[in-house]
Structure of ABC transporter permease:
Amino acid sequence: MNIQKVLKMYVRDKWGWFLIPNIMLFSIFIINLIVSLFITTKEQFYTGGVSYIFVYMLVMGILVVAQTFSYAVSMSVRRTDYFIGTVAMGSIMNFSYGVLLLICSTIENWTNGWGGKFHFFHFPYLNDGTLLEQFAIYFIVFINLFFLGFMISSFYRRYGKKGMVYSALIILVIASIAVLLIHYYAAWMDIFHWFATHTAVQIAYWLIIPTLFYIAFSYLFLKRATV
């Protein structure tokens, strides 16, 4: 089993997994905090800058296969071990970032927006539940995006550019048909009502299903992918 070898390979990449996301996240936070100091309104000030870290995890999931798959296989790492090691590393890192956001959100709430009603980590609805529920939301969204990126990159490794183009066209057609059907049957209000009657954590739980599909399909693609 070369799973430990895969994990060590990822740990060596401190910039990609640790430094870049944290530097960028807290740089954006500090910039937004400074800007908030010049806003004299008494209302709560919200910013969506924290979304960067979620997008980064999607991108990281895409890059991980492109940057490490060929190298790992050339080092006699079995594809199954590479897959398990990548899933383990992605889960560990997303767990860690979920804890980080939970801590920052809690501190922000306790300090009433860092003393100036500035909200970067803590938002209504998203953070209305218990601490465990808030963490579940962060973690599930993180792994969903990471493994979506992982599946996309694995698919590209298996089927190449043509496969990506064909799949993009198929997804576009399916999405267009779905929108037309929803509009035809006037189902938009039903969809909005469904979201309105569920908490953020309840909606997040639904993301577990596609996440499991992403992981399963990633494995199937990598098993037959070219190096």
